Amino acid sequence: MKAAVFHAKEDLRIEEVDEPSPGPGQVKLRNAYAGICGSDLHVYYSPEAAGLDFDHPHPVTGSSLPQILGHEFSGTVVEVGEGVTDVSEGDRVAVWPIYYCGECAACRKGMFNVCQKIGFHGLTSHGGGMAEYTTVDASKLHVLPENVDLRLGALVEPMAVAWHAVDRSGIQPGQRALIAGAGPIGIGVWFALRARGIETVIVSEPSEVRRNAIQGVGAELLVDPASEDLSARVAELTDGDGVDVAFDAAGVGVAITSALANLTPGGKVVVVALHEKPMQFLPTQLVMSETEIGGTLGYLQADFDAVIAAMAGGKYDPTGWVDVVGLDEVTDAFGRLRAGRGMKVLVSSSGE
């Protein structure tokens, strides 16, 4: 079968590899679509900065390079292994890709998304979604309803990142939010907020392309922080109070500092994006208004269920911000995304 196989920094090859067979408790999937995300770009262009140790087998999965990529993906069950009873051949599914140790402090608290030895199917495992087939534990599957297609199914993973962040924020209907960054995760935060009944959602994004993309799915309160006074716009839209929660989906220091400056007393900044550079801020900002900063990573299985239910309810729209390429175009797609050309790219293993 064909697969996108990562060998080393900037060395991704489309190769013929053996087709896998499911073991006990596993299923074999015919992969449909796999998303390219920021983590994939980090791995491809700067694996050391991504925090992945490819010099040693992964402590949970035992995997090492070369690695089939694709950790946000959907597919159809084509074969079930011994002991699998919860899914059947023909089921269309999204895959919760996390591997966890079950023993660390995070795992003992049920926080498998921050396991100290965390791994991902399609990053540090025996397979991935950027291939014609893969095998995964049946326990990782989330069956898609009839009205959620496989393209949306491949978006469940990144949308679950955003859903988890909104869940962690504690925001309630009637409160107001600010999103810094309108890339795929920023769009996901917008969908999750709207699905939870948050009416006032201000989006700060300097890229016209990204502002247009999030406007295309329904966002109305848009600010270009490069040419507009963000604080003035927030004050105008919140009667001078500031927002209750701000989400950093941009991954730059100024997103956090500007978010802190626009919080209402007791408000919170939720950092969703990964940052490549350190930043400085004055902690007195937190003290004087009893505001706080919190981080959020990934998702739990319940976040997948919640996103799929919201998708079934018509709360998500991929129009205008999602493109599809074939396996042979993966490397080119990495380059386009790295250069800021494009929003979200799904890789079709079938070429459809």
Rg result: 20 Å
Q: Quote the CATH topology of the largest domain.
A: Quinone Oxidoreductase, Chain A, domain 1
Task: Compute the average pLDDT.
Answer: 95
Structural class estimated from helices and strands: alpha/beta
Flag low-confidence runs.
none
What's the number of extended β-strand segments? Answer: 18
- Quickly count the domains: 2
Q: State the share of residues found in helices, binned by percent.
A: 25-40%
End-to-end distance, in Å?
A: 16 Å
In the CATH hierarchy, what is the class of the largest domain?
Answer: Alpha Beta
Full CATH superfamily name of the largest domain: Medium-chain alcohol dehydrogenases, catalytic domain
Features:
352 residues; Quinone Oxidoreductase, Chain A, domain 1; Rossmann fold; alpha/beta; globular; six-stranded parallel β-sheet
Could you explain how this protein is built, in words?
With 352 residues, the protein is α/β, with parallel strands linked by helices. The protein folds into 2 domains: 2-147 and 313-348, Medium-chain alcohol dehydrogenases, catalytic domain (Quinone Oxidoreductase, Chain A, domain 1); 163-295, Rossmann fold, CATH 3.40.50. It has helices at residues 38-45, 105-108, 150-169, 184-195, 208-216, 230-237, 253-261, 284-289, 301-312, 330-338; strands at 2-8, 11-16, 26-36, 67-68, 73-80, 92-95, 98-99, 119-120, 133-137, 141-143, 176-180, 200-204, 221-223, 243-248, 263-271, 292-295, 322-326, 344-348. Strands 3, 5, 6, 9, 10, 17 and 18 form a 7-stranded mixed beta sheet that branches. It has a 6-stranded parallel beta sheet with strand order 13-12-11-14-15-16, with helices on both faces. It has a 3-stranded antiparallel beta sheet with strand order 2-1-4, with no helix packed on it. Helix 4 (184-195) links the parallel strand 11 (176-180) and strand 12. Helix 3 crosses helix 4 (184-195) and helix 3 packs across helix 9 (301-312). The longest helix is centred in the middle third of the chain and has 20 residues, at 150-169. It is globular, with a radius of gyration of 20 Å. The mean pLDDT is 95.
